[in-house]
Design a protein that fits this description.
By secondary structure, the protein is α/β, with parallel strands linked by helices. It has two domains: 317 residues, Alkaline Phosphatase, subunit A (3-Layer(aba) Sandwich); 105 residues, Gyrase A, domain 2, CATH 3.30.1360. The chain contains 19 helices and 22 strands. The strands form six sheets. The chain has a ten-stranded mixed β-sheet, with helices on both faces. Helix 3 crosses helix 12, helix 11 runs antiparallel to helix 12 and helix 13 runs antiparallel to helix 15. The longest helix is centred in the middle third of the chain and has 24 residues. The two termini are 34 Å apart. About 7% of the residues have low confidence. It binds zinc ion.
Length: 569
């Protein structure tokens, strides 16, 4: 038989393949840790504080020093969705924390879903004071405009996450995600999960959604009942390290702490009114510690990573740095100290994983959803610009050219960086390039505005890097007709914002984030090749032996040990 030698060859090849494949078993646990607003340069500028988790990551991990988001609008919902799916906002659709829905004429949050309801852990313990916008969301708070949504779900996420694919391709594994923010926990998990938890600011309790569970998850209830976060009521936020080790000064210019805090350490929870407590608690290291303790409890309750032949997924997004960063800015002692405390939090988490799972049997990725801009400094020529000024300038230009609107306004809504127009005006502009230019000229003459991009003209193949970046972050049905791009170091926000600074720009301080891999199959080292958070999901998927349907990142092959490299593509 002529086929015989060929068959033998195939058999030998298959045997060789199965041997190498078994040499690198898939991880039993995939861990994704996001530190919200952790800018890449913090790894070096705050180096005097690393002696726990961050030190382990830098010493034993694969550190991609040039990791950067390639798209223009860098915020929480877009960042977490990108990390979780390995795709860009143009594909996963989560272009921003909120966008204007042209059909319902409502501003929707990215996880809003009127068909879903909130499942709360316990009755509200304290009621948070109403905050302008949502306090710590990027510029462009909700204001008085109508808002949609009752509950939250992954409905608006248009791509499958790594956790989704793990559940489908390697059934039996658990999916657990935790954050103070619903848009972080939900998007890290994707379309299902065993425990998908966040802190419901309005109710002052932890919560999940009917999209994930029909009743409170017993494992979570057990933890929350035993250690409610109100136990931190006497907490005093003091410096983790001797004050001489801090590079940032206390009480810096432009800080905007929450009432009743001042810019000076210590910051107390003691004495906070019931209405202030939840708002202040999430701005202290106690909140990160609490989240990590919840994660540890769930690792134990579900025995994550402790069974053979399945791969669990644990996603944790630490939000405190973002809440503090918005109020105090990246050059504050508060931000430096939250990062220092986070080092301890990561250290205890990694120690627990090493103990319960074993370093070789889990793989962990550490990254951030975005960075942050410095606090505006008029003395240096970096100011802040209100979105209302931009909206008024556009409205005025359109009225000059087209007359007053039939009803309401030509500008339907502005939510940084998107400018939404009435349907009639959108149609007219499509055939009127001169008016498009007139609007662009009017807005770019405002101080602090670099560009006003007309989105129908965006192309991901443009030779203009800014146009390309904007195209990668755009979804036609969710983005506005125009995108505002501020000048470097300028901050855009609503009039009377409660924040000192924000993020969202296409500049390095917002796009450049840590990307460190640790654990089984990972080759430690420092890597200077181009990388992006879109690479995280495909790389972890390759290690776990699952395929992602749509991917816009690459497998970070150079950081994989040979066994993992040759068998997992
Ligand atoms: Zn933020």
């Amino acid at each position: 038989m002529r086929l015989r030698p060929l068959l033998r060859l195939v058999a030998v090849a298959l045997l060789a393949w199965s041997l190498t494949a078994s040499a690198a078993a898939p991880p039993r646990l995939v861990v994704v840790i996001v530190a919200d607003q952790f800018r890449a340069d913090y790894l070096t500028t705050f180096a005097s504080h690393w002696r726990a988790g961050v030190q382990t990551l830098l010493r034993d991990g694969a550190n991609f020093r040039r990791a950067q988001y390639p798209y223009a609008y860098t915020d929480t919902c877009a960042g977490h969705s990108t990390i979780a799916t390995g795709t860009l906002p143009r594909t996963h659709g989560m272009i921003a924390d909120s966008w204007w829905d042209h059909e319902t004429n409502l501003l929707v949050d990215c996880t809003d879903d009127e068909a879903a309801s909130i499942i709360s852990y316990g009755s509200p313990l304290v009621v948070a004071a109403p905050v302008a916008g949502r306090g710590a969301t990027p510029a462009g708070g909700r204001g008085a405009a109508p808002v949609g949504g009752a509950g939250n779900s992954p409905r608006n996420l248009l791509a499958q996450t790594l956790a989704d694919e793990l559940r489908q391709q390697r059934p039996g594994g658990r999916v657990v995600t935790l954050s103070l923010k619903e848009r972080a926990a939900i998007n890290l998990a994707g379309h299902s999960g065993d425990a998908v938890m966040w802190f419901d600011e309005a109710a002052g309790t932890f919560a999940t959604s009917s999209a994930f569970a029909s009743a409170p998850v017993p494992e979570v209830t057990q933890f929350i009942d035993a250690s409610p976060y109100v136990k931190d009521v006497g907490f005093v936020w003091t410096l983790r390290d001797p004050s001489t080790t801090y590079r940032n000064r206390d009480a810096g210019v432009g800080e905007r702490p929450s009432n009743p805090w001042s810019g000076l350490f210590p910051h107390n929870l003691e004495g906070a009114t019931a209405a202030q407590y939840a708002n202040l608690w999430r701005r202290t290291p106690a909140a990160d510690v609490y989240l990590a303790r919840m994660a540890t409890a769930l690792i134990d309750a579900y025995r994550l990573g402790q069974a053979e032949n399945k791969t669990d997924f644990l996603g944790i997004s630490f939000s405190t740095l973002d809440y503090v960063g918005h109020q105090f800015g990246p050059d504050s002692r508060e931000v430096e100290d939250i990062a220092a405390h986070l080092d301890d939090v990561l250290g205890s988490l990694i120690a627990h994983l090493d103990d319960k799972v074993g370093r070789a049997k889990y793989v962990l990725a550490f990254t951030a959803d975005h960075g942050v801009a410095p606090v505006p400094s008029p003395a240096k020529g970096f100011g802040s610009l209100t979105l209302d000024d931009v909206r008024e300038r556009i409205e005025e230009t359109l009225r000059n050219r087209y007359g007053p609107p039939d009803k309401d306004a030509h500008v339907a809504r502005i939510y940084y960086p998107n400018v939404y127009l009435s349907p009639a005006i959108r149609q007219r502009l499509a055939a009127d390039p001169l008016t498009v230019r007139a609007v662009q000229d009017a807005v770019t003459s405002l101080p602090g505005v670099a560009r006003l991009l007309y989105t129908p003209e965006l192309s991901d193949r443009s030779r203009d890097p800014l146009v390309r970046a904007a195209a990668l972050g755009r979804a036609a049905t969710r983005s506005g007709a125009f995108l505002i791009v501020q000048k470097r170091n300028w901050v855009l926000g609503p009039r009377g914002t409660a924040d000192a600074t924000t993020h969202g720009s296409p500049y390095d301080y917002d796009q450049h984030v840590p990307l460190i891999l640790l654990g089984g199959g990972i080759r430690r080292g420092t890597y200077d090749a181009a990388a992006a958070p879109t690479d995280i999901a495909p790389t972890l998927a390759a290690l776990a032996g699952v395929t992602l349907a749509k991917v816009e990142g690459r497998v970070l092959q150079e950081a994989l040990l040979p066994d993992s490299q040759t068998t997992r593509r």
